[in-house]
Amino acid sequence: MELFFTILILLGLIGVSNVLSGQFPLVPVPLMQIALGMIAAAIPFGLHMHLEPELFFILFIAPLLYNDGKHASRAELWKLRVPILLLAVGLVFATVFLIGFAIHWMIPSIPLPVAFGLAAILSPTDAVAVGSLAGRIRLPSSLKHLLEGEALMNDASGLVAFKFAIAAALTGSFSLGNASVSFLLIAIGGIAVGAVTALLISGIRVWLSRSGLEDETMHMLVHLLTPFALYMIAEHLGVSGILAAVAGGVVHAVERDRMSSIKPLSHELSDNTWSVIVFILNGLVFVILGLQLPSVFNEVFQDTTHNNGEVVGYAFIIFLLLLVLRFLWAYSFSRGGRWIGKKTESNVKISFKMLAMTALSGVRGAVTLAGAFSIPLLLDNGAPFPERSLVIFLSAVVILLSLVSASVLLPLFAQKPAKDKAEERAAAERTGERLIMGAAIRAVHSVTTENNEVESASVIADYERWRRNPEADLRRMQRGKSDLEEREMRLKAIEVERRTVNKMLQEERITETQATLFQSNLDQMSMVLSARTNLLVLLVKFWGQELKALLTKQESRFKAVRDLSVADREAIRGLKVQTCEAALSSLRTERKCDARAAVMTQYEHVLAKLTSPYSFGKPLEGDEEVRRDLQWIAIQAERDEVQTLFERGEITRDVANKLRRTIRTREATILSEVLD
Fold first, then answer.
1. Is 337 helix (H, G, I), strand (E, B) or coil?
2. Does residue 27 form part of some domain?
3. To 10 degrees, what angle do helices 594-610 and 566-588 make?
4. Would you state the pLDDT for residue 174?
5. CA–CA separation, 568 and 506 (whole Å)
6. What are the C-alpha distances in Å from 461 to residues 440, 444, 465, 468, 476?
7. Same domain, yes or no: 587 and 510
8. Are 126 and 29 contacting, i.e. CB atoms less than 8 angstroms apart?
9. Which residues form the domain of 593?
10. Is the domain of 636 the same as that of 603?
11. Number of domains, the chain
């Protein structure tokens, strides 16, 4: 039961970090998750979870790297094969020897083999942290692909080097020739085993399908078990399980491309399931990392053999050495004629900014700490492993320093000139508008039947008109500050309407039912127009009303609208006329601006429609109800597309928020007509 509650709390912390990321977009989610894990471990009676390195690698690293391999661009990996190998293999071994000697010279109490082991475990970059930073900071695409390819490969080379260094520390013997041959066998063997095993598993899935076993759930189960099978088989054969998982993911991607036209449904199910799994595993990696840090810090800080200030200084110096070595490594090979996939002329140099971003992007993560925790407690002769706690502490502090420095400095280097930035944002907004409208059109098409063809065509025609008028979209998007002014003015007008309704209710000119129904519509309009600070209050109020309706067994608002009598409809029509006139009267007292004109135009349009002798007094026609249902489907499809574009890193948070405001405006327009 204790383990069950621990898992629930960890999942809850992941949810909290996701909410906080929306409130504090400048802070990377991994840092938030680490902080939440540290808080959970530091409080009295907090969580305490022992990190089992072997279980950690198979449970977290194998499926995450398998998924990364599955989605990695194979064309980019091949194009960038030279710089990827230079970073993932060459830089790893350069780090082991150069940084290892530096650590031993700086801290003589750490034996040379142990210093090599510490340098080896510090050499791999973290694919999860790199992906999080790349999506938030908008790194150049070539650099992003380079870092992703490096992170796929250097875990294996770093862990193999770490394994040999620790073996040398345990036994006191080491052979460079044997280690080199072993590394090649382990690396090539891991790739081969992963590819062959993945092909066998793919063959099993094809055989099951041809045998008539088309159960999507069973095929999904095979997908979920694949990375664990790849890792365990490779490790059992003595080769790299990490490279086996990566190779299996790449093979699966090849098979997927070949079969994409045959089984699109299984691919969609696989993508949706893996997106949830990867989200949870990514979060758990950093929350668990945060859980380990308080005990690591306490153990070192309470040790009287080391000065606390000195050990923190050692960690800071090691981090700087790693940063400088990575920069010099990239600089030296950029002058050799090939870097990030481009052949450079002898007189052309890669910019300092690109080299600095390459160096800062070498973020360390949970693999480093898990490797450090795998250091045994005792040597082969029974003596305590030298400076084990200090090695773990140095690893943890370097992880934090790499995350913080990348979060603070990378945005400065990735920042573009104001003019270019504005043009890029405007282009992203226009592209985003077209994409979300396309998603809305596809969603309406998908639910079109013979019974709703006319209504579907009407909704699609609206979106096609908006999508084909990019000039109008550009003018609307470039209004900038006026969007906020218009939203605030709409909210003021709604408040005037609300006061008018209350006054008419007090004068008994309308019934309680009519007032409640009208106020509910105003509340929903406020909810979609409100800024984030007011939205929480409105949401609580809205759900309070829904809960009250549920407990008192009241009918839903939309059913109440359908069942309104002709007399009630006439009363609500008159009420709407009164509130529109009151809102217009209030708006005329505001200073003249584009926002006031836009809001007044909307109210004048609604008022003209209300005073038409043919618009009201009849029950809601079925085709109008169907049309509004289709509009809600289109609105939800727009929201889903915005979230998808943001998660892929194709749009920034600012652009996503701007697109959501546009969607809220469309939603408010629909809501304003619900009682019409």
1. coil
2. no
3. 150
4. 66
5. 18
6. 11, 11, 6, 10, 20
7. yes
8. no
9. 484-619
10. no
11. 3
